[in-house]
């Protein structure tokens, strides 16, 4: 009997670029596996965005707090 390893999804922030007439996804930030997220990478991304936007009025809720429903607008598998 052949035992298949479990399939895991990855959470990534990607940007699509056109290269030689075709589009190619370029991973900008890898947040780790769905079942073991890299919280440190998420914190670094938020800190980087806050450096750009500034912290006036601090509109960002602390990480791990619920601020309302989150809606996934689209998703698709890349590679694999």
Summary keywords:
extended, 1 helix, three-stranded antiparallel sheet, 80 residues, 3 strands, alpha+beta, 30% strand
Topology:
Blueprint: E1 10-19, E2 22-33, E3 36-37, H1 39-53
Antiparallel strand pairs: 1-2, 2-3
Write structural notes for this entry:
Strands 1-2-3 form a 3-stranded antiparallel β-sheet. The protein has one helix spanning 39-53, and strands spanning 10-19, 22-33, 36-37. The chain has a domain at 10-53. A hairpin with a 2-residue loop joins strand 1 (10-19) and strand 2 (22-33). The chain has 1 helix and 3 strands; from the N terminus they run βββα. By secondary structure, it is an alpha+beta fold. The longest helix has 15 residues, at 39-53. The protein is 19% helix and 30% strand.
Give the count of helical stretches: 1
Name the strands of the widest sheet in spatial order. 1-2-3
The residue ranges in which pLDDT falls below 50 over 5 or more consecutive positions are none
Rg, nearest Å: 17 Å
Helix content: 10-25%
Q: What overall form do the CA principal axes indicate?
A: extended
Average of per-residue pLDDT values:
80
* Beta-strand segment tally: 3
Structural class: alpha+beta
Distance from N terminus to C terminus (CA atoms, Å) equals 24 Å
Query: H/E series, N to C?
Result: EEEH
Give a short account of the largest sheet: 3 strands, antiparallel
